Here is the input.
Amino acid sequence: MPGTRIVGNFALSFLSKLSSGYWNVFDPTNGFTAIHRRAASDLPFDMLSKGFFFESDMLFQLGLIRAVVEDVPMAARYGLETSGINIPKVVPEFLFKHALNTSKRIVFNYFVRDAGIATVQLVLGKILLLFGVVFGAVKWYGSLQSGIPATAGTVVLAALPIIVGSQLLIAFLGNDVRNVPTKPLQNHPPG
Here is the structure.
């Protein structure tokens, strides 16, 4: 596999994991997909993105219906064919669509469908991190302008929320990684 494809595949796989919540899938956008008829019947095909973002968007929609997704080992074979993807065109589009799907997934899974400890970690972590960064930047800028070094208390008051907020966001990410669906839809009644 060419080096540019390896790097691009790594970045695309990470973004797909982030936007779909399927952290357990190694290569979610390799072009090979098999889907159980039960999961397919629950998918809103009319809402799926057309074009190259189709696989990532389908994975996002599968995550919303809590379908189990598995990796199936297969050999990737690249010949002399040229890709039809226009990289400068799709990168901004993919970044925007992955950011939008990530936001929708987090709101739906952690605020609409269920609110638990992960929701608290996310909200409190963001608030503390943002406070620490803004407070620290303001105090740092004031210290630069006045030429007077910040006191130890001021530094701690900026650093502590950044540290605690970061830890809470890491804990949220850990909860999100463990929140991958494990019970197949075909074992549930339809609807």
About this structure: The chain has a mean pLDDT of 87. The two ends are 42 Å apart (CA to CA). The chain is about 60% helix and 0% strand. Residues 115-191 form one domain.
